[in-house]
Amino acid sequence: MRKIIFVILVLLVMSGTGLALETIKLGVVTIPGAAQNIVAEKFKALVEERSANAFNVKIFHSASIGNETEILQQIQMGTIQMGVITGGPFDTFDPIVRVINYPFLFKDYDQADEILDGPLGNEILESLETSGFKGLCFSENGFRNLTNNRHAVTVPDDVKGLKIRVMSSPLHKAIWQTLGANPTPMPWPIYTELEQGVIDGQENPLWVMEVYKFYEIQKYMTLTRHVYSPHIDVASLKWFNKLSSENQTLIKTAMKDAATFQRKDNRDKDAGRLALLKGKGMQIVETPDIDAFRTRVAGLKDMELYRDPKVHALLIKMLDAVK
Q1: 228 Cβ partners below 8 Å, 6+ apart?
Q2: What per-residue confidence (pLDDT) applies to 303?
Q3: What are residue 285's DSSP bridge partners?
Q4: Average per-residue pLDDT in the chain?
Q5: What is the extent of the structural domain holding 91?
Q6: CA separation for the pair 29, 35 (Å, rounded)
Q7: What are phi and psi of 259, to 5 degrees?
Q8: Model-level pTM?
Q9: Domains in the chain: how many in total?
Q10: For residues 218 and 201, is the Cβ–Cβ distance under 8 A?
Q11: In CATH, what number is assigned to the domain containing residue 52?
Q12: Are residues 132 and 235 in the same domain?
């Protein structure tokens, strides 16, 4: 009898401190092995270990619960608790996110880390609360590069007329319109559309070419590095605010540590990925005329996309910080 009473008391104490078993539903659109999944799986391992399995993280991958916009809508409503989401789809929820997708903003990974892990990045994470998201930190896709199946691209004029898949993002569409392409918003995945010639090409970091085997269906790649593409790792604000302060800290710290792990893992593998793609027969332009590309899109900062006073002010601060 004493043993039974003791067990009941322990369960009551655990329930009162927020340590009762709770499932965290986390959505990503990519397949196992992809950058988003690496963050999600590391987060799952850290949270479950550090909470002594008081939290159980269930990862919904491969767009099994919808595309990224649909996952964000579910996070807003609180039907799922968390997501690792590419930066682009956020700009229909909060236009301030357009700032980090500005073309040719960051020169390298170190600069991206310095800005996004600092006060300017935090300004973006805090702004997301107005849309129902708790911004936790930034992990990464990486620098985006152009692929296509028609011809090599060295200068902006080579882009003219290419039908390029882009994310559901007004900014990404504007970038490729400015460069003369025919940007086509399309949800992920896109292998079949590339294979059948519905689109000529796409733009993504190197890991995407490897994991999704785009070397099978795309002949040309140009290392444009035109946008540094972060993930924004978020939680439902409704859910997060109901957690104890201890568990809020647990969630934030575990996701930050998972993001730090994933960013290093992603960067360490890039040289090997480039060698793999060359070995698979992709023709890679490693030194395109980046100055010409940058000049062609320089006017985007004055477009309607950036005229919201809050967005424009942050963009100017970002541009000043990366000079």
Answers
A1: 100, 105, 106, 112, 140, 142, 143, 144
A2: 86
A3: 222
A4: 92
A5: 2-141+230-269
A6: 11
A7: -65, -40
A8: 0.87
A9: 2
A10: yes
A11: 3.40.190.170
A12: yes
